[in-house]
Amino acid sequence: MGMGEMNVMSLIEIDSKLNEIQDFDLLLERILFEARKVVHADAGSIYIKEAIEDAMGEKVEKLAIKYSQNDTTEKELPPGQKPIYSFFTVPITDKTISGYCALTQRLVNVPDAYNLPARVPYSFGKHFDQISGYKTTSILAIPLKTAEGRLLGVIQVINAKDKSGAIIPFSSDDEALISHFANNATMAFQKAQIMRTMILRMIKMAELRDPKETGTHVNRVAGYAVEIYDRWATRRGLSQDDRDKYKDNLRIASMLHDAGKVAISDTILKKPARFTPEEYVIMQNHTLHGSALFDDPQSPLDILARDIAFTHHENWDGTGYPGWVDPSLGTPLRMGEGNKPLGKKGEEIPLAGRIVSLADVFDALCSKRVYKEPWTEEDVLMEIRKLSGTKFDPELVEVFFEILANIKQIQERYPEAVA
What we know:
Layout: H1 8-20, H2 24-38, E1 41-53, E2 59-70, H3 71-75, E3 89-91, H4 97-104, E4 108-110, H5 127-132, E5 139-145, E6 151-161, E7 167-168, H6 172-209, H7 215-236, H8 240-255, H9 266-269, H10 277-284, H11 286-292, H12 300-311, H13 351-366, H14 377-386, H15 394-402, H16 404-413
Antiparallel strand pairs: 1-2, 1-6, 2-3, 4-5, 5-6, 6-7
């Protein structure tokens, strides 16, 4: 696609869409998608510069792959499924195409990855092509960098296609388009990065109170929640635009599901054993404290965060908590047996609360706690199935098992830190 075909209004529209996205991960995925669309690329990956700990325990800056997309391989999958890819890091050196792009902070245009000029310092790793059976030919790598020249990451798009679908080299027009796109995407990137950093700082504060509430835990729970919702919404035939807006808010709101724990006593939060019945009742109040943080909602994000904080411990069969209570006062609105508030059940529980309930319990069972070792994968999955229709929404459990490969991929992306 040339400059004449991709008019200025189209680029402005893309810029506007990117700036509407608040969540960092969803923005990265969208940046890659739009970058590929701009230059008619069949596949691509987006890398972010991160400080990675090496074998000696020292921090080394590398490129970490965050998302990979491939239209050809995705067409071979059942409808709604996403390709599964491995997470890896790339040194910022001149030995690889993406590393060279990051090192020089300059665009790299490779017409044929299998026939590189002798003068270039980098080589093309054919390993992934051999594993996937996909042939990489043309590559265009562009650095994502701030106006001050600080490197944020690299977009690498693969296999430009002409109107007939034939693979061709990326043109000079493509270079101009992707450069303009990258400059504007960087601004949206920085804004979303600030939002993510602020949320993780809030989580870090909670972690000082509750060692279980880690950045990797909330990132996993949020990742699971988005994948579960996306498949559920696909089943229901929701529009892509509606799904994207909901996912953007859901990921951020899910990360704040246990924010109310900051109001719980350290004696309870840091207890290295299971709670007594009395302590457990006090602990349940974190749902009220969490919803109180959003009791004056200013946006759809606030409403979703409030609903999740308040209802992610409700059970499908009505046996969860806090039930039908006034979130600001904690006083019962409907009474059940044993002089306790009546629990919310079924679709009385907001969808987001039902989703995060499943995501949170799954992650807790898979994780080590002071009072337990992580369960085996087989036992965890058996427990999730067993709780379908009692603790969890049966449809969401079906969805969960449909996307289990994506769930495992999120576990790989956000592994628990080794103590």
